[in-house]
Amino acid sequence: MPYTHEQEAEFKREFAERRKRQIILAVLLVPVVVAVVLAGDSLERGLLGLPPAVLPVGFLLLVACALIFSLRNWRCPACDRYLGRQLGPRFCPKCGVGLR
Fold first, then answer.
1. Is residue 35 part of a domain?
2. Which of 48, 71, 78, 89 has the most C-beta neighbours closer than 10 Å?
């Protein structure tokens, strides 16, 4: 489907916003995951005053929320289909609209 120049510009603007949100999510989540992996056995004593039994559930909940956010956010602004694992696609792999 041919789009107007205004629509294409809006798709690119919206994609830039979505990409920015994905990068912010990664910047916030990756250090948490690394810290949990490096902490390993020391988490058995708890963390930040939380009992040890709460930590795995909280961590899984955090990862699940990040995954759900990412699956909803990382979509083509034109066709609303998932953009895949690449962080900087130039075109939507589904509809072909230019994203950058």
1. yes
2. 78
Whole-number Cα distances in Å, 16 to 39, 40, 71, 74: 35, 36, 16, 11
Within-domain flag for 41: yes
Tell me how crowded residue 99 is: count the other CB atoms within 10 A of its CB: 20
55, part of any domain: yes
- The range of the structural domain enclosing residue 41 comes to 5-73
54 is a domain residue: yes
**Tokens for 8?**
């294409």
Q: Which contacts of 83-88 are long-range, i.e. CB under 8 A and separated by 24 or more positions?
A: 87/19, 87/22, 87/23, 88/19
**Cα Rg of the chain (Å, integer):** 18
Per-residue pLDDT tens, the chain, 100 aa: give them: 689 999 999 999 999 999 999 999 999 999 988 877 777 666 666 566 667 677 778 889 999 999 999 999 999 999 999 999 888 899 999 999 999 8
Domain count, the chain: 1
